[in-house]
Amino acid sequence: MKLIELHNFGDDGFQKTERGMPSPCIGEVVIKVHAASLNFRDFMIAKGLYNPNIELPLVPLSDGAGEVVSVGNDVTEFNVGDRVMSVFWQDWNENNSNRMVSTGSDAGGVLTEYAVLPKEAILPIPEYMTYQEASTIPCAAVTAWTCIKAANIGSGDSVLLLGTGGVSILALQILKAMDANVIITSSSNEKLEQAKELGADHTINYNENPEWGSEAFSLSNGGVNLVIEIGGESTFPQTINALTIGGHISVIGALSGINVELNLMQMVFKNVHVHGITVGSREDHMELNNFLEQHEIHPVIGKTVSIDKAINEIYGMSSGSHFGKIVIDISDD
Predict the structure, then answer these.
(1) Residue 96: inside a domain, yes or no?
(2) Which of 44, 186, 200, 284 could be a cystine partner for 280, CB 3.0 to 4.6 Å?
(3) Is 226 left (phi over 0), alpha (psi -120 to 50) or beta?
(4) What DSSP state is assigned to residue 308?
């Protein structure tokens, strides 16, 4: 079977290789991977920016979908032929809350023709979804879902999304199914038009309006209920400006830096709630799958490439040029 491994951190650390067909041990399943998708975390892992103590070599990528081809002797929850997707945290579920082992980082990932995963690290794919669509869910969509849940967002609430990457676009789709009002930012007017086509109520080009937080405050008639915050140092002050009293910030990243100067009195007077979000549990993922199936949401795939081009796409994640998700097609049919 073909697979890609990370052997060294930096700009040239991946190696393509081939191995024999794996067999499952107790509690494991073997999946024929049909598709995988990329997250910014995959770029950070490759560069050594995420966790320089990760054990190498490593099969990367947390997000994949495929077909069960064999199961361990004790596995009764899944059968050969089942369509499944990976779960981000292998040890965060109703029976375990360690959150120490994530697929594609602390344990082997899915950038391979056949992946071995513990049974706790897979879930059934919603029936209406393709393998490619399902591969976009485990990290980005679950993150969006838990951000929204943390703020108890519902119909009529206003949410500000930063950028048009995987989390923001999946959040947009989920929020519109909830009948929430969505404001989204980008430096690209073309991407903002695409977001409008998906239902965004308002768009802001942050290059054209550096005070985008104040504009979002005005557009939402008194401030947004939630900002899904990805920027960190360069965006956090504007994020606070955008909030209504009692508003929420779900922090999922810090692309521009981790050190933020805060006006604590502004946070006090606005009664700001800040949540650090690390994707979500297996149960969060299950709940999201049910919501997606109820509304038949089709994740936006901006680009699909073959496994032979996966390495270039991982390193290219830093450009931020994509809209929605980048999918790696691993199927041989």
Answers:
(1) yes
(2) 284
(3) beta
(4) G
